[in-house]
């Protein structure tokens, strides 16, 4: 589950926020399997989509994370979940996307490096209301 500014997000929803206001972000991983899973690394990468096949990931002057954009999750037991809390701060207006990936954080596993990607979250940063 992904919540941006307290609202559940999916790939069909555009979340609107204001430039200069921290935007709360929550990502919850629920283990529905019968076995414990982990360890994982959760990585969030903001980008802009130029609608021509080009994604710009060089956004250090436009977006900043309050905290880190990578979090380590040790183990998630069956039917339990692990929740990441953070915030984004948009410095400029525009349409941005957030790639959220879970990576296996254990070299002995045979899963690909990035094996679970959630749909991108679309966030529109607008001018502050006067």
UniProtKB/TrEMBL annotation:
Stretch forming the signal peptide: none
A GO CC term assigned to this protein in UniProt: trans-Golgi network
Domain of life: Eukaryota
Pfam family, one: Ig_TRAPPC9-Trs120_4th
UniProt xrefs under InterPro entries: Ig_TRAPPC9_Trs120_4th, Trs120_TRAPPC9
Residue span(s) of domain Trs120/TRAPPC9 fourth Ig-like: 16-125
Name of this chain's protein: TPPC9 protein
Lineage, uppermost ranks: Eukaryota, Metazoa, Chordata, Craniata, Vertebrata
Gene from which this protein is expressed: Trappc9
């Amino acid at each position: 589950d992904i919540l941006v500014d307290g609202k559940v997000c999916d790939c069909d929803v555009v979340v609107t926020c204001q430039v200069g206001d921290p935007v709360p972000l929550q990502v919850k991983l629920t283990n529905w399997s019968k076995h414990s899973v982990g360890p994982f690394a959760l990585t969030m990468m903001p980008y802009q989509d130029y609608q021509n096949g080009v994604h710009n990931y060089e956004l250090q002057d436009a977006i900043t994370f309050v905290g880190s954009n990578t979090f380590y999750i040790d183990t998630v037991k069956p039917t339990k979940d692990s929740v990441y809390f953070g915030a984004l701060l948009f410095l400029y207006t525009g349409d941005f996307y957030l790639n959220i990936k879970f990576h296996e954080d254990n070299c002995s596993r045979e899963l690909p490096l990035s094996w679970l990607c959630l749909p991108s979250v679309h966030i529109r940063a607008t001018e502050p209301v006067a």
